[in-house]
Design goal:
By secondary structure, the protein is of the alpha+beta class. It has three domains: 97 residues, no CATH class; 48 residues, SH3 type barrels (Roll); 83 residues, 2-Layer Sandwich (Alpha-Beta Plaits). 47% of the residues lie in helices and 20% in strands. The protein has a five-stranded antiparallel sheet with strand order 6-5-4-3-7.
Length: 296
């Protein structure tokens, strides 16, 4: 069998791959070098991603570090491998980086202005990983977003809210904005439930009933123990506040407040304690007020 056609085809492909796209100083950039770089860069990103997942989820560090520290270790490992790998790929492709210094400087200035936000988020991500103001599993509130942190990346942090909606929050917001972290120290948080009862009610009895309702709720901690405060005298009634601690409903605050409100309403109804209706006293200092009954 004559294989001349195959030899000719390979020769044409080789000639095509050696086609010079442009020349920078003493460096000749060919189609082959560009293809070589693109393929190896893709493989490098794929490989470093697999290594990052192995560091985070692999058995080596699983028993020694928690998930947040493994996340930091995996991310830094990937960045280091990417930096070294990109330099090796470019050098082995025969591209002399010194010839691109001036061009890289000019392009870098333009890219720097265009990528300020991305760089800011990247640096903020490194700060978050090292200082750990937030970590995976924390219950956070940033702006109008409230939810659990499920992932911390180089550019953004993923927050899952109570509606099972994933919110991607830029990392810079966790550094520059005011952030509420409900579980930064521990999972114990105090909830405040305002209660208003009609004037004439026994305030001491109301306080005792509120404490009994709190102690009867399985989601309220016994230590620190719940407390009741007499807040003041409102326009419509006596204002009190039940303060109860919980550690297992940080992501369901509305549920705890709702079940306590249900219990308070039912208990007060059984004890005959009235909730006040809004009321206003009208005083007429002068003049005459005519009152007529409307015809039905």
């Amino acid at each position: 069998m004559d294989w001349t056609w195959l030899t000719d085809a390979l020769a044409r492909v080789q000639a095509l791959m050696q086609y010079t796209l442009f020349t920078a100083g003493a460096t000749r950039v060919t189609l082959w070098s560009v293809t070589y770089v693109l393929v190896l860069v893709w493989l490098l990103f794929w490989f470093t991603q697999r290594v990052q997942r192995w560091v985070i989820d692999g058995p080596v560090l699983r028993q020694r570090l928690d998930v947040n520290r493994r996340q930091v270790a995996g991310t830094l490992t990937r960045y280091a491998m990417l930096a070294v790998g990109l330099l090796v790929i470019v050098q082995t492709a025969g591209i002399d980086l010194t010839t691109f210094n001036v061009l890289a400087g000019a392009v870098g200035i333009g890219i720097g202005f265009g990528l300020q936000n991305i760089i800011s988020n990247f640096v903020a991500g490194l700060i978050i990983m090292f200082e750990r103001p937030i970590k995976i599993g924390d219950r956070v509130v940033v702006g109008a977003t409230e939810g659990n942190v499920v992932a911390i990346g180089a550019r953004s942090t993923t927050v899952l809210d109570n509606d099972n909606v994933t919110v991607i929050v830029p990392n810079s917001r966790f550094i520059t904005d005011e952030v509420i972290n409900w579980s930064h120290n521990d999972n114990k948080v105090r909830f405040r439930i305002p209660v208003t009862v009609a004037y004439g009610s026994d305030a001491r009895l109301v306080a005792r009933l509120l404490l009994e309702v709190a102690h009867a709720d399985a989601d309220v901690l016994e230590e620190p123990e719940p407390a009741v405060r007499f807040v003041g005298f409102g326009d419509d009634g006596i204002e009190l506040e039940l303060r109860a601690w919980s550690s297992n409903l940080l992501d369901r605050k509305g549920r705890l407040i709702s079940q306590l409100n249900f219990a308070i309403y039912e208990r007060f109804g059984a004890e005959g304690i009235e909730f006040p209706f809004p009321q206003r006293d009208l005083h007429i200092k002068s003049g005459v007020l005519n009152i007529r009954r409307a015809d039905s």
